[in-house]
Amino acid sequence: xxxxxxxxxxxxxxxxxxxxxPPAALCIHLCIGMAYGFSVFWLPxxxxxxxxxxxxxxxxxxxxxxxxxxxxxxxxxxxxWMYTLFFVxxxxxxxxxxxxxxxxxxRKAGVVSALCWCGGLVLSALxxxxxxxxxxxxxxxVIGGIGLxxxxxxxxxxLIKWFPDRRGMATGMAIMGFGGGAMVGxxxxxxxxxxxxxxxxxxxxxxxxxxxxxxxxxxxxxxLSYRIPPSGWKPANWSPPVAAKKGLITxxxxxxxxxxxxxxxWLLWGVLCLNVSAGIGVIGMASPMLQEVFGxxxxxxxxxxxxxxxxxxxxxxxxxxAGFTGLLSLFNISGRFLWATFSDYIGRKATFFTFFTLxxxxxxxxxxxxxxxxxxxxxxxxxLAITMYGGGFASIPAYLADIFGTQMVGAIHGRLLTAWSxxxxxxxxxxxxxxxxxxxxGVPKSAAYDTxxxxxxxxxxxxxxxxxxxRPVAAKWFMxxxxxxxxxxxxxxxxxxNNIAQSERVSGQGGNYALVAAAWLFVGIPLTxxxxxxxxxxxxxxx
Length: 543
Prior knowledge:
The protein is mainly α. The protein has helices spanning 2-5, 21-32, 42-45, 63-66, 76-104, 106-130, 133-153, 156-162, 167-196, 204-225, 243-246, 256-259, 263-294, 311-346, 348-371, 375-404, 409-416, 418-440, 450-468, 481-491, 496-505, 513-538. Helix content is 71%, strand content 0%.
């Protein structure tokens, strides 16, 4: 098995079509992207014991005791810690094992990711069945979070090496899948929970087990389908861009152990962290923000504030707000592909300048749109802003390849993802605590988000400055020819001569076009299903 998963066994041979690699990456990203959709389980899990209604824990029960309690139900804040664990362990595992991934290859990393993510779901099912919250945190949060990190970065280096002519587009296709995973998984999980629900079970642990099986099949297909190009490979009739014309794009390579010592790494860390903090802050408050800012306007009663609505009316605007959240999901995944592709034409630095400049204008304008009661403008502002949140995730791997070279970009990207972990704490904390402070000091709910928007806009100014300071890496950081040769031998090269010969035989095109079409259908059908469900929910916003 170890030999079968070895990186040298995944080097492509003559006739391999490089367009088979993005569907393989999507197989994994569509599965691990369900991390975004885990909130679909929160409400059923708050009734795991009571079934019909939640059984509250005693007021004097300690937080620690709740982890092991079997006689009362969990509350949403306790369950919500899963999100923090997801993104903390995603970033930390990507940072710790990114270097190992470069040597082990995407196939082995993909298999380990599948075992961790799906094994975590199985352990979580046991946690729900025995009503032990700590098992859920350990299963999906810790072990599953490690699977998230390895699965997220597993295709990055491979895709960039297969598509040196379209780095942004290639990574955008895969990372688009992570954004769309919840659109596929959430409605599927909802249907499964309803199917498995009984008078003695809310159907969650059965759903976890079913998803574990489905995801394991998809992820293993993706992992075993990975192929890497021979060293030195490039598309036919394509030449690397001249550095003088493209500015930041280098033809040299920086080792992962040196990359984090450069100012460029930490500037890009700041770029990603600040861009994600602003976007994730909006995603986390999208539903309550729309309801509290517009209140009765959402149902044709502009004279009624949020606080004046009755239970029926609150239910109506909650459905509309869910449509808004679905709409943001659509723009999130579309931005991942479109902005990353666009970055191939205008450059990565210019793309992030656009994010920060346009984002500052949008976030600063949102309060005025809300006070004016202009729902269409308000929704449009955040839909466009969220495209840049997703676009930042998809464009940053190509930015790293431009700056540090392609040899160890997967490992460098893994370390940079610690910025995501930091943003996953910074963004929600800023939004939630500032909003709560405003309301506690008498600010109306409809105006309590104004200060938050201005602070998020300020974060983007910081990102603009970080991006402005990015310069080409100094020559002293690049690997020498001898160091590069040694690194390539560690990775998968049997000999430079053999790989040059192999490189000339692999076109990256041709092969079995029916197989390519089937691979894209395999991932395209579930993604289309998810988009269709999301569009139907979003239509409520315009109903």
